[in-house]
Protein backbone atom coordinates (compact mmCIF):
# COMPACT_ATOMS: atom_id res chain seq x y z
CA UNK A 1 0.00 0.00 0.00
CA UNK A 2 1.35 3.40 -1.00
CA UNK A 3 1.03 6.35 1.31
CA UNK A 4 1.33 9.91 0.02
CA UNK A 5 1.97 12.77 2.39
CA UNK A 6 1.12 16.17 0.99
CA UNK A 7 2.67 19.15 2.72
CA UNK A 8 1.80 22.71 1.88
CA UNK A 9 3.97 25.75 2.31
CA UNK A 10 1.93 28.62 3.65
CA UNK A 11 2.74 32.30 3.89
CA UNK A 12 -0.25 33.01 6.11
CA UNK A 13 0.81 35.12 9.05
CA UNK A 14 4.41 35.30 7.84
CA UNK A 15 4.17 38.36 5.61
CA UNK A 16 3.29 42.03 6.02
CA UNK A 17 -0.44 42.67 5.55
CA UNK A 18 0.16 44.63 2.34
CA UNK A 19 2.26 41.86 0.75
CA UNK A 20 0.66 40.33 -2.36
CA UNK A 21 1.49 36.66 -2.81
CA UNK A 22 0.03 35.55 -6.10
CA UNK A 23 -0.41 32.97 -8.77
CA UNK A 24 -1.45 33.28 -12.39
CA UNK A 25 -3.20 31.31 -15.09
CA UNK A 26 -4.29 31.64 -18.68
CA UNK A 27 -7.85 30.69 -19.63
CA UNK A 28 -6.81 28.52 -22.57
CA UNK A 29 -4.07 26.72 -20.65
CA UNK A 30 -6.15 26.14 -17.50
CA UNK A 31 -9.91 26.08 -18.09
CA UNK A 32 -10.51 23.22 -20.46
CA UNK A 33 -14.28 22.68 -20.83
CA UNK A 34 -14.02 22.99 -24.61
CA UNK A 35 -17.45 24.11 -25.88
CA UNK A 36 -19.09 23.36 -22.48
CA UNK A 37 -21.95 25.48 -21.12
CA UNK A 38 -22.37 27.51 -24.30
CA UNK A 39 -18.70 28.43 -24.87
CA UNK A 40 -17.81 29.33 -28.45
CA UNK A 41 -14.52 28.89 -30.28
CA UNK A 42 -11.61 31.18 -29.47
CA UNK A 43 -8.56 31.80 -31.63
CA UNK A 44 -6.46 29.22 -29.74
CA UNK A 45 -9.16 26.55 -30.15
CA UNK A 46 -9.09 27.02 -33.91
CA UNK A 47 -5.30 27.42 -34.05
CA UNK A 48 -4.35 24.27 -32.13
CA UNK A 49 -6.80 22.05 -34.02
CA UNK A 50 -5.05 22.69 -37.35
CA UNK A 51 -2.73 19.81 -38.33
CA UNK A 52 -0.21 22.18 -39.92
CA UNK A 53 0.14 24.08 -36.63
CA UNK A 54 1.04 20.92 -34.76
CA UNK A 55 3.93 20.28 -37.14
CA UNK A 56 5.59 23.71 -37.01
CA UNK A 57 4.82 24.50 -33.36
CA UNK A 58 6.22 21.14 -32.35
CA UNK A 59 3.16 20.05 -30.42
CA UNK A 60 4.53 16.55 -30.67
CA UNK A 61 1.71 14.74 -28.93
CA UNK A 62 -1.01 16.80 -30.63
CA UNK A 63 -2.46 18.06 -27.35
CA UNK A 64 -4.49 21.23 -27.04
CA UNK A 65 -6.50 23.07 -24.40
CA UNK A 66 -9.73 21.08 -24.76
CA UNK A 67 -9.30 19.65 -21.26
CA UNK A 68 -6.16 21.43 -19.97
CA UNK A 69 -6.14 21.18 -16.15
CA UNK A 70 -9.95 21.42 -16.16
CA UNK A 71 -10.11 24.45 -13.90
CA UNK A 72 -13.60 25.15 -15.23
CA UNK A 73 -14.86 22.14 -13.28
CA UNK A 74 -12.18 21.95 -10.55
CA UNK A 75 -11.99 25.68 -9.68
CA UNK A 76 -13.02 25.16 -6.05
CA UNK A 77 -10.05 22.87 -5.44
CA UNK A 78 -7.76 25.52 -6.92
CA UNK A 79 -9.27 28.26 -4.76
CA UNK A 80 -8.99 26.03 -1.67
CA UNK A 81 -5.31 25.33 -2.40
CA UNK A 82 -4.65 29.05 -2.91
CA UNK A 83 -6.26 29.74 0.45
CA UNK A 84 -4.24 27.00 2.19
CA UNK A 85 -0.90 28.39 1.00
CA UNK A 86 -1.86 32.01 1.64
CA UNK A 87 -2.35 33.30 -1.90
CA UNK A 88 -4.07 36.69 -1.80
CA UNK A 89 -3.61 37.66 -5.45
CA UNK A 90 -4.65 35.73 -8.55
CA UNK A 91 -4.09 36.86 -12.13
CA UNK A 92 -6.35 35.01 -14.53
CA UNK A 93 -7.58 35.63 -18.01
CA UNK A 94 -11.11 35.56 -19.32
CA UNK A 95 -11.99 33.54 -22.39
CA UNK A 96 -14.23 35.95 -24.25
CA UNK A 97 -15.54 32.97 -26.23
CA UNK A 98 -17.08 31.79 -22.95
CA UNK A 99 -18.78 35.18 -22.41
CA UNK A 100 -19.68 36.03 -26.03
CA UNK A 101 -19.79 32.68 -27.86
CA UNK A 102 -20.61 34.27 -31.21
CA UNK A 103 -18.28 37.27 -30.65
CA UNK A 104 -21.22 39.71 -30.56
CA UNK A 105 -24.79 39.62 -29.38
CA UNK A 106 -26.18 37.51 -26.60
CA UNK A 107 -24.05 37.08 -23.48
CA UNK A 108 -23.58 33.54 -22.18
CA UNK A 109 -24.82 33.64 -18.58
CA UNK A 110 -22.93 30.42 -17.69
CA UNK A 111 -19.66 32.16 -18.63
CA UNK A 112 -20.47 35.19 -16.47
CA UNK A 113 -21.40 32.92 -13.55
CA UNK A 114 -18.12 31.01 -13.91
CA UNK A 115 -15.93 34.11 -13.76
CA UNK A 116 -17.95 35.62 -10.92
CA UNK A 117 -16.66 32.75 -8.77
CA UNK A 118 -13.21 34.31 -9.06
CA UNK A 119 -13.93 38.04 -9.09
CA UNK A 120 -16.33 38.54 -6.15
CA UNK A 121 -13.52 40.18 -4.17
CA UNK A 122 -11.73 41.86 -7.08
CA UNK A 123 -9.63 44.85 -6.08
CA UNK A 124 -7.06 45.15 -8.86
CA UNK A 125 -7.43 44.34 -12.52
CA UNK A 126 -5.73 44.85 -15.86
CA UNK A 127 -7.19 44.75 -19.33
CA UNK A 128 -4.54 42.83 -21.27
CA UNK A 129 -1.78 40.43 -20.43
CA UNK A 130 1.23 40.86 -22.70
CA UNK A 131 -0.40 43.00 -25.41
CA UNK A 132 2.93 43.25 -27.22
CA UNK A 133 3.03 39.47 -27.55
CA UNK A 134 -0.41 39.44 -29.16
CA UNK A 135 0.61 42.03 -31.74
CA UNK A 136 4.08 40.68 -32.49
CA UNK A 137 3.53 36.93 -32.31
CA UNK A 138 0.02 36.96 -33.77
CA UNK A 139 0.37 39.58 -36.51
CA UNK A 140 4.08 39.88 -37.29
CA UNK A 141 5.90 36.57 -36.79
CA UNK A 142 2.75 34.43 -37.00
CA UNK A 143 3.84 32.13 -34.18
CA UNK A 144 0.57 32.60 -32.25
CA UNK A 145 -3.00 32.87 -33.54
CA UNK A 146 -4.31 34.17 -35.82
CA UNK A 147 -0.95 33.32 -37.42
CA UNK A 148 -0.64 36.29 -39.73
CA UNK A 149 2.85 36.98 -41.01
CA UNK A 150 4.94 37.64 -44.03
CA UNK A 151 8.57 37.37 -45.06
CA UNK A 152 11.19 37.57 -43.57
CA UNK A 153 9.60 35.81 -40.57
CA UNK A 154 7.66 33.05 -42.31
CA UNK A 155 5.67 32.65 -45.45
CA UNK A 156 2.15 32.52 -43.99
CA UNK A 157 -0.91 32.32 -46.19
CA UNK A 158 -2.16 35.62 -44.76
CA UNK A 159 -0.42 38.64 -43.35
CA UNK A 160 0.95 42.08 -44.01
CA UNK A 161 4.19 42.71 -42.14
CA UNK A 162 4.07 46.41 -42.97
CA UNK A 163 0.75 47.14 -41.24
CA UNK A 164 -1.07 44.37 -39.38
CA UNK A 165 0.90 44.31 -36.12
CA UNK A 166 0.52 48.10 -35.86
CA UNK A 167 -3.25 47.83 -36.44
CA UNK A 168 -3.49 45.07 -33.81
CA UNK A 169 -1.48 47.12 -31.29
CA UNK A 170 -3.59 50.20 -32.04
CA UNK A 171 -6.84 48.27 -31.45
CA UNK A 172 -5.51 46.80 -28.21
CA UNK A 173 -4.70 50.30 -26.96
CA UNK A 174 -8.15 51.59 -27.97
CA UNK A 175 -9.92 48.69 -26.26
CA UNK A 176 -7.79 49.16 -23.13
CA UNK A 177 -8.80 52.85 -23.03
CA UNK A 178 -12.47 51.97 -23.49
CA UNK A 179 -12.30 49.42 -20.66
CA UNK A 180 -10.60 51.89 -18.30
CA UNK A 181 -13.22 54.56 -19.05
CA UNK A 182 -16.02 52.02 -18.52
CA UNK A 183 -14.48 50.85 -15.24
CA UNK A 184 -14.13 54.45 -14.03
CA UNK A 185 -17.78 55.11 -14.92
CA UNK A 186 -18.88 51.98 -13.05
CA UNK A 187 -16.77 52.92 -10.01
CA UNK A 188 -18.25 56.45 -10.06
CA UNK A 189 -21.81 55.09 -10.20
CA UNK A 190 -21.06 52.67 -7.36
CA UNK A 191 -19.57 55.45 -5.22
CA UNK A 192 -22.46 57.82 -5.87
CA UNK A 193 -25.13 55.22 -5.16
CA UNK A 194 -23.44 53.82 -2.05
Rg from alpha-carbon coordinates: 20 Å
Approximately how much helix is present in the residues? 40-55%
Shape label? globular
Tell me the strand percentage band: under 5%
Tally of discrete structural domains = 2
Tally of helical segments: 8
N- to C-terminal separation?
A: 59 Å
Model regions low in confidence, pLDDT < 50 over at least 5 residues: 189-194
Summarize the structure in words.
The protein is mainly alpha-helical. It has two domains: 1-125, no CATH class; 130-194, no CATH class. 44% of the residues lie in helices and 3% in strands. The protein has helices at 27-30, 43-48, 51-57, 71-85, 96-99, 109-119, 131-139, 164-193, and strands spanning 22-24, 89-91. It has a two-stranded parallel ribbon. The longest helix has 30 residues, at 164-193. It is globular. It comes from Rosa chinensis (China rose). Keywords: Glycosidase, Hydrolase. Its EC number is 3.2.1.-. This is Putative glycosidase.
Provide a quick synopsis of the model.
By secondary structure, the protein is mainly α.
What is the topological layout?
Blueprint: E1 22-24, H1 27-30, H2 43-48, H3 51-57, H4 71-85, E2 89-91, H5 96-99, H6 109-119, H7 131-139, H8 164-193
Parallel strand pairs: 1-2
Helix pairs in contact: 7-8
Amino acid sequence: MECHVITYISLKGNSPSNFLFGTASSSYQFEGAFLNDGKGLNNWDVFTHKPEVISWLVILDGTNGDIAVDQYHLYQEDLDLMNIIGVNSYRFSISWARILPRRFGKVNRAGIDHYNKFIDALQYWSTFNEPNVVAIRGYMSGIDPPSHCSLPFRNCTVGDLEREHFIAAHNIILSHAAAVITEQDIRFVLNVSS
